[in-house]
Amino acid sequence: MANDNNINDFIIGLSASMANKEPEQFAKEMCDMASEGDIAEFEAIVDKLVKKKITPELYIKVISPLASELNSLWCFLFNMKFPEEKRERIDNTLRKLNQFRLKWARKQSRQGCDKEVRPLVKYSINGLGRKYYSYFPTKELVEMLIQKGLIYRNPRAKSDTSAFVVRGLHLAVGDNVFTVNWKGQQYRNYVDYCAPEAFYLRPEFQAELKEMDTTSLPELPAYFEIMSIGDYKGCCKISLSSNDKNKIRSFITENRGY
Q1: Contact between 218 and 197 (Cβ < 8 Å)
Q2: pLDDT tens digits, residue range 202-224?
Q3: Domain check: are 139 and 103 in the same one?
Q4: Do 243 and 146 fall within a single domain?
Protein backbone atom coordinates (compact mmCIF):
# COMPACT_ATOMS: atom_id res chain seq x y z
CA MET A 1 0.00 0.00 0.00
CA ALA A 2 2.83 2.37 0.89
CA ASN A 3 4.45 1.63 -2.44
CA ASP A 4 1.15 2.39 -4.25
CA ASN A 5 0.92 5.69 -2.39
CA ASN A 6 4.46 6.61 -3.47
CA ILE A 7 3.60 5.85 -7.10
CA ASN A 8 0.39 7.91 -6.85
CA ASP A 9 2.30 10.82 -5.31
CA PHE A 10 4.85 10.64 -8.14
CA ILE A 11 2.13 10.61 -10.83
CA ILE A 12 0.29 13.54 -9.26
CA GLY A 13 3.54 15.48 -8.81
CA LEU A 14 4.59 14.91 -12.42
CA SER A 15 1.16 15.83 -13.81
CA ALA A 16 0.97 18.90 -11.58
CA SER A 17 4.40 20.05 -12.74
CA MET A 18 3.33 19.74 -16.39
CA ALA A 19 0.22 21.80 -15.58
CA ASN A 20 2.26 24.39 -13.62
CA LYS A 21 0.22 23.72 -10.47
CA GLU A 22 0.92 22.57 -6.93
CA PRO A 23 0.30 18.81 -6.47
CA GLU A 24 -2.42 19.33 -3.86
CA GLN A 25 -4.24 21.87 -6.02
CA PHE A 26 -3.96 19.67 -9.12
CA ALA A 27 -5.23 16.54 -7.35
CA LYS A 28 -8.19 18.43 -5.86
CA GLU A 29 -9.16 19.91 -9.25
CA MET A 30 -8.97 16.52 -10.94
CA CYS A 31 -11.00 14.82 -8.22
CA ASP A 32 -13.63 17.58 -8.41
CA MET A 33 -13.86 17.16 -12.19
CA ALA A 34 -14.26 13.40 -11.71
CA SER A 35 -17.49 13.89 -9.78
CA GLU A 36 -20.72 12.61 -11.30
CA GLY A 37 -22.02 16.16 -11.72
CA ASP A 38 -18.93 17.44 -13.51
CA ILE A 39 -18.73 14.45 -15.86
CA ALA A 40 -22.39 14.92 -16.79
CA GLU A 41 -21.68 18.63 -17.39
CA PHE A 42 -18.74 17.80 -19.68
CA GLU A 43 -20.97 15.44 -21.66
CA ALA A 44 -23.68 18.12 -22.01
CA ILE A 45 -21.18 20.79 -23.09
CA VAL A 46 -19.66 18.59 -25.78
CA ASP A 47 -23.11 17.53 -27.04
CA LYS A 48 -23.93 21.21 -27.56
CA LEU A 49 -20.55 22.12 -29.03
CA VAL A 50 -20.60 19.49 -31.78
CA LYS A 51 -23.77 21.05 -33.14
CA LYS A 52 -22.09 24.42 -33.61
CA LYS A 53 -20.00 25.73 -36.49
CA ILE A 54 -16.36 26.00 -35.46
CA THR A 55 -14.76 29.42 -35.78
CA PRO A 56 -11.12 30.23 -34.99
CA GLU A 57 -12.23 32.11 -31.88
CA LEU A 58 -14.37 29.20 -30.66
CA TYR A 59 -11.51 26.76 -31.35
CA ILE A 60 -8.91 28.84 -29.46
CA LYS A 61 -11.04 29.94 -26.50
CA VAL A 62 -13.30 26.93 -25.91
CA ILE A 63 -12.64 23.76 -27.90
CA SER A 64 -8.87 23.43 -27.56
CA PRO A 65 -8.78 24.19 -23.79
CA LEU A 66 -11.72 21.84 -23.21
CA ALA A 67 -9.99 19.01 -25.09
CA SER A 68 -6.84 19.59 -23.03
CA GLU A 69 -8.82 19.43 -19.76
CA LEU A 70 -10.60 16.24 -20.80
CA ASN A 71 -7.33 14.63 -21.85
CA SER A 72 -5.69 15.53 -18.53
CA LEU A 73 -8.70 14.21 -16.63
CA TRP A 74 -8.72 10.91 -18.52
CA CYS A 75 -4.99 10.40 -17.85
CA PHE A 76 -5.52 11.19 -14.16
CA LEU A 77 -8.43 8.75 -13.87
CA PHE A 78 -6.46 6.03 -15.66
CA ASN A 79 -3.25 6.48 -13.66
CA MET A 80 -5.07 6.72 -10.34
CA LYS A 81 -7.20 3.64 -11.15
CA PHE A 82 -10.59 5.33 -10.92
CA PRO A 83 -13.64 3.16 -11.78
CA GLU A 84 -13.70 2.07 -15.42
CA GLU A 85 -17.19 3.49 -15.95
CA LYS A 86 -15.93 7.03 -15.30
CA ARG A 87 -12.93 6.55 -17.58
CA GLU A 88 -15.16 5.27 -20.37
CA ARG A 89 -17.50 8.24 -20.10
CA ILE A 90 -14.63 10.72 -20.33
CA ASP A 91 -13.05 8.70 -23.16
CA ASN A 92 -16.31 8.72 -25.14
CA THR A 93 -16.78 12.45 -24.55
CA LEU A 94 -13.21 13.22 -25.63
CA ARG A 95 -13.54 10.98 -28.68
CA LYS A 96 -16.71 12.81 -29.78
CA LEU A 97 -15.02 16.20 -29.34
CA ASN A 98 -11.89 15.09 -31.19
CA GLN A 99 -13.87 13.77 -34.17
CA PHE A 100 -15.54 17.17 -34.36
CA ARG A 101 -12.16 18.96 -34.14
CA LEU A 102 -10.53 16.66 -36.67
CA LYS A 103 -13.10 17.33 -39.39
CA TRP A 104 -12.57 21.09 -39.03
CA ALA A 105 -8.78 20.79 -38.75
CA ARG A 106 -8.54 18.77 -41.99
CA LYS A 107 -10.61 21.35 -43.84
CA GLN A 108 -8.42 24.21 -42.56
CA SER A 109 -5.22 22.37 -43.45
CA ARG A 110 -6.28 21.32 -46.96
CA GLN A 111 -8.44 24.24 -48.10
CA GLY A 112 -7.44 25.39 -51.59
CA CYS A 113 -5.12 22.42 -52.17
CA ASP A 114 -6.56 19.88 -54.59
CA LYS A 115 -5.14 16.45 -55.44
CA GLU A 116 -3.14 17.88 -58.35
CA VAL A 117 -1.29 20.29 -56.08
CA ARG A 118 -0.72 18.02 -53.05
CA PRO A 119 2.30 16.19 -54.55
CA LEU A 120 3.95 19.58 -55.17
CA VAL A 121 3.22 20.68 -51.60
CA LYS A 122 4.80 17.43 -50.41
CA TYR A 123 7.91 18.16 -52.44
CA SER A 124 8.18 21.66 -50.98
CA ILE A 125 8.23 20.46 -47.35
CA ASN A 126 11.48 20.38 -45.42
CA GLY A 127 12.35 16.90 -44.18
CA LEU A 128 11.15 14.92 -47.19
CA GLY A 129 14.67 13.62 -47.78
CA ARG A 130 17.18 13.92 -50.56
CA LYS A 131 16.49 16.30 -53.41
CA TYR A 132 14.92 14.29 -56.22
CA TYR A 133 15.16 16.79 -59.09
CA SER A 134 18.24 18.93 -59.75
CA TYR A 135 16.53 21.34 -62.14
CA PHE A 136 13.26 21.79 -60.33
CA PRO A 137 11.51 25.11 -61.17
CA THR A 138 11.53 26.41 -57.59
CA LYS A 139 10.41 29.95 -58.38
CA GLU A 140 7.45 28.77 -60.46
CA LEU A 141 6.21 26.48 -57.68
CA VAL A 142 6.59 29.19 -55.05
CA GLU A 143 4.55 31.58 -57.21
CA MET A 144 1.85 28.95 -57.73
CA LEU A 145 1.59 28.13 -54.01
CA ILE A 146 1.36 31.84 -53.19
CA GLN A 147 -1.35 32.30 -55.80
CA LYS A 148 -3.32 29.45 -54.20
CA GLY A 149 -2.94 30.98 -50.74
CA LEU A 150 -0.87 28.11 -49.33
CA ILE A 151 2.31 29.92 -48.21
CA TYR A 152 2.44 31.99 -45.01
CA ARG A 153 4.93 34.09 -43.11
CA ASN A 154 5.82 32.39 -39.85
CA PRO A 155 5.45 34.79 -36.89
CA ARG A 156 7.05 32.17 -34.61
CA ALA A 157 10.23 31.89 -36.70
CA LYS A 158 13.48 31.86 -34.72
CA SER A 159 15.74 31.89 -37.78
CA ASP A 160 15.68 32.55 -41.52
CA THR A 161 15.38 28.82 -42.20
CA SER A 162 11.87 28.80 -40.71
CA ALA A 163 10.60 32.17 -41.94
CA PHE A 164 7.94 30.65 -44.25
CA VAL A 165 5.59 27.70 -43.97
CA VAL A 166 3.17 25.91 -46.26
CA ARG A 167 -0.15 24.20 -45.69
CA GLY A 168 -2.20 21.89 -47.92
CA LEU A 169 -1.79 18.53 -46.19
CA HIS A 170 -3.17 17.01 -43.02
CA LEU A 171 -0.98 14.15 -41.83
CA ALA A 172 -1.10 11.69 -38.94
CA VAL A 173 1.51 12.13 -36.20
CA GLY A 174 3.80 9.62 -34.52
CA ASP A 175 2.62 8.04 -31.28
CA ASN A 176 4.77 6.56 -28.52
CA VAL A 177 3.28 3.13 -29.27
CA PHE A 178 4.94 0.60 -31.56
CA THR A 179 3.65 -2.42 -33.44
CA VAL A 180 5.90 -5.47 -33.79
CA ASN A 181 5.62 -7.63 -36.93
CA TRP A 182 6.32 -11.34 -37.20
CA LYS A 183 9.99 -10.63 -37.86
CA GLY A 184 10.29 -8.76 -34.57
CA GLN A 185 10.67 -5.39 -36.31
CA GLN A 186 9.09 -2.37 -34.62
CA TYR A 187 6.90 0.15 -36.44
CA ARG A 188 5.76 3.40 -34.87
CA ASN A 189 1.98 3.90 -34.80
CA TYR A 190 0.60 7.11 -36.31
CA VAL A 191 -2.61 8.76 -35.11
CA ASP A 192 -4.95 11.52 -36.30
CA TYR A 193 -4.04 15.05 -35.21
CA CYS A 194 -6.90 17.35 -34.27
CA ALA A 195 -5.36 20.76 -35.05
CA PRO A 196 -4.76 22.49 -38.40
CA GLU A 197 -1.26 21.78 -39.71
CA ALA A 198 1.43 23.72 -41.54
CA PHE A 199 4.97 22.65 -42.47
CA TYR A 200 8.38 24.27 -42.84
CA LEU A 201 9.49 24.83 -46.42
CA ARG A 202 12.70 23.32 -47.80
CA PRO A 203 15.77 25.61 -47.74
CA GLU A 204 15.70 26.33 -51.49
CA PHE A 205 12.09 27.49 -51.24
CA GLN A 206 12.89 29.62 -48.17
CA ALA A 207 15.77 31.18 -50.14
CA GLU A 208 13.52 31.89 -53.14
CA LEU A 209 10.99 33.68 -50.93
CA LYS A 210 13.70 35.84 -49.33
CA GLU A 211 14.42 37.24 -52.80
CA MET A 212 10.78 38.23 -53.27
CA ASP A 213 8.58 40.94 -51.78
CA THR A 214 6.60 38.93 -49.24
CA THR A 215 5.07 41.77 -47.24
CA SER A 216 1.63 40.95 -48.63
CA LEU A 217 1.81 37.30 -47.53
CA PRO A 218 -0.49 36.54 -44.59
CA GLU A 219 0.87 35.42 -41.24
CA LEU A 220 0.11 31.87 -40.18
CA PRO A 221 -2.92 31.93 -37.84
CA ALA A 222 -2.21 31.17 -34.19
CA TYR A 223 -4.43 28.07 -34.18
CA PHE A 224 -2.23 26.28 -36.74
CA GLU A 225 0.44 23.89 -35.48
CA ILE A 226 3.74 23.81 -37.37
CA MET A 227 4.69 20.16 -37.79
CA SER A 228 8.11 18.58 -38.19
CA ILE A 229 8.89 15.58 -40.38
CA GLY A 230 10.55 12.48 -38.97
CA ASP A 231 10.05 9.11 -37.32
CA TYR A 232 9.57 10.59 -33.85
CA LYS A 233 6.73 11.09 -31.42
CA GLY A 234 4.65 14.11 -32.46
CA CYS A 235 6.19 14.26 -35.95
CA CYS A 236 4.71 13.43 -39.34
CA LYS A 237 5.99 10.96 -41.89
CA ILE A 238 5.92 11.84 -45.58
CA SER A 239 6.96 10.17 -48.84
CA LEU A 240 6.34 10.48 -52.56
CA SER A 241 4.30 7.79 -54.30
CA SER A 242 4.84 6.88 -57.96
CA ASN A 243 1.81 8.98 -58.84
CA ASP A 244 3.24 11.93 -56.87
CA LYS A 245 6.53 11.69 -58.77
CA ASN A 246 4.71 11.61 -62.11
CA LYS A 247 2.83 14.80 -61.24
CA ILE A 248 6.07 16.46 -60.16
CA ARG A 249 7.75 15.47 -63.45
CA SER A 250 4.77 16.90 -65.33
CA PHE A 251 5.19 20.19 -63.47
CA ILE A 252 8.89 20.27 -64.36
CA THR A 253 8.10 19.60 -68.04
CA GLU A 254 5.45 22.32 -68.16
CA ASN A 255 7.74 24.91 -66.58
CA ARG A 256 11.15 23.92 -67.93
CA GLY A 257 10.19 22.62 -71.36
CA TYR A 258 11.79 19.19 -71.05
Answers
A1: no
A2: 999 999 999 999 999 999 999 99
A3: no
A4: yes
